[in-house]
């Protein structure tokens, strides 16, 4: 039996234009050599809520989101699902059955993740194997955008389990992929393209590593500012002593005072210049590092982690409230069970007491039965008008079980025999009476 292919990829704002051009075949130059542009007219849309992926999807999100806060630039805006199977599976389907297959898949996702959250569902028939690109905006039930909550690990496992069963129920012979397997159903060109992309990614990683090493392995200065030797520049000045000569002139003395300048060697001055140049280069590299994707991604992850911690705390608080409500309901349920049990016992006692009371005061047993039955029916009817079950009548029904069919048939036959015997007796009496009349 063929296996379902249902794999998901996350789309951020910067990915939407490219994936839109690919899905809508807005260009004739494709890196995927499996695309036959002469057959592209066979492609069709099951859902077409957008002409410009980026513009229309961002507009939809801003109109629907419950929070007034702006969407983060690195947020996942669309979870794109690629749905397919192997070539043999589609070769056994007619054109109408193939269309029904993709329509049923779309219905499954619409039922579980919201019809209006599916912004596009495009079926490609111009490649080797038919497949569908379906974009779902990850809004939760509170209209909060969160791919991590909507398509978490449990949800992804449920899709892999439930989707093939859903398709089997509507007549498609297909099963889920291997459990725990990362195998993808790729054509040879797709596999080669994936390997080329992998090599390119590995090259980019090596470049990033080299850049980071460059930041951490700068030329170390041989001399630090702590090693700089200097001395203060001094100059001699004349200052008054406050004493006077015999001729009345004030006596002065020569003292040395700092000029505010420092004297360093030419070598140390060169070291300071080197340090200044080194500091400027470090500052430039640091600013460049702040502008790299790696740093931005790290900052984004920090913000996301902070948001997840907040949401986790909210869930904990909500869970504690729910647990408290559950415990209160559990206690109330136990109390009500005990109270209902007591009421049933009380009703049973009232029933028996009423029955004994009326029976002791009625000489005719048939009159008692009729009156008691009428009482039970009267109580039952009044309770039924109020939407309540009559446990009083249930006690009566237990006390007076309905006769079985065989018992009823036996009673009917007995009545018939008694009636026939009575008729015979009446006929004999009538004959005797007639005979006596004739004798007279």
UniProtKB/TrEMBL annotation:
The keyword Coiled coil applies. It comes from the Bacteria. The keyword Coiled coil applies. Keywords: Coiled coil. Residues 191-218, 298-346 form a coiled coil. Pfam families: Mob_Pre. GO terms for molecular function: DNA binding. Belongs to the plasmid mobilization pre family. This is Plasmid recombination enzyme. It comes from Tissierella creatinophila DSM 6911.
């Amino acid at each position: 039996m063929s296996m379902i292919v249902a794999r998901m990829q996350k789309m951020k704002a910067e990915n939407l234009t490219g994936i839109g051009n690919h899905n809508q075949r807005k260009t004739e130059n494709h890196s995927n050599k499996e695309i036959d542009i002469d057959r592209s007219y066979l492609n069709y849309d099951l859902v077409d809520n957008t002409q410009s992926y980026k513009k229309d999807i961002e507009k939809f999100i801003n109109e629907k989101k419950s929070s007034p806060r702006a969407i983060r630039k690195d947020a996942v805006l669309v979870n794109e699902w690629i749905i397919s199977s192997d070539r043999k599976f589609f070769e056994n389907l007619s054109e109408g059955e193939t269309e029904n297959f993709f329509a049923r898949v779309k219905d499954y996702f619409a039922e579980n993740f919201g019809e209006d959250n599916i912004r596009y569902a495009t079926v490609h028939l111009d490649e080797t194997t038919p497949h569908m690109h379906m974009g779902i905006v990850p809004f939760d039930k509170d209209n909060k955008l969160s791919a991590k909550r909507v398509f978490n690990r449990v949800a992804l496992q449920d899709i892999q389990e439930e989707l093939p069963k859903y398709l089997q129920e509507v007549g498609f012979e297909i099963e889920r992929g291997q459990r725990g397997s990362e195998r993808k159903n790729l054509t040879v060109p797709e596999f080669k393209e994936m390997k080329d992309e992998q090599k390119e990614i590995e090259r980019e990683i090596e470049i990033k590593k080299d850049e980071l090493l460059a930041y951490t392995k700068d030329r170390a200065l041989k001399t630090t500012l702590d090693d700089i030797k200097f001395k203060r520049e001094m100059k001699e000045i004349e200052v008054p002593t406050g004493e006077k000569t015999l001729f009345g002139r004030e006596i002065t003395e020569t003292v040395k005072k700092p000029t505010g300048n420092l004297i360093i060697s030419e070598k140390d001055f060169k070291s300071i210049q080197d340090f200044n140049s080194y500091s400027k280069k470090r500052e430039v590299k640091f600013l460049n590092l702040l502008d790299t994707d790696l740093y931005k991604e790290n900052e984004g992850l920090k913000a996301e982690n902070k948001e997840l911690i907040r949401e986790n705390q909210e869930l904990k608080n909500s869970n504690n409230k729910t647990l408290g409500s559950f415990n209160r309901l559990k206690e109330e349920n136990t109390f009500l069970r005990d109270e209902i049990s007591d009421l049933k016992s009380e009703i049973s006692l009232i029933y028996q007491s009423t029955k004994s009371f009326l029976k002791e005061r009625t000489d005719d047993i048939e009159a008692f039965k009729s009156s008691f039955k009428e009482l039970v029916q009267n109580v039952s009817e009044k309770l039924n008008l109020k939407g309540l079950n009559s446990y009083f009548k249930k006690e009566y029904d237990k006390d007076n079980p309905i006769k079985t069919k065989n018992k009823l048939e036996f009673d009917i036959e007995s009545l018939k025999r008694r009636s026939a015997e009575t008729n015979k007796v009446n006929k004999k009496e009538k004959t005797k009476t007639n005979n006596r009349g004739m004798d007279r």
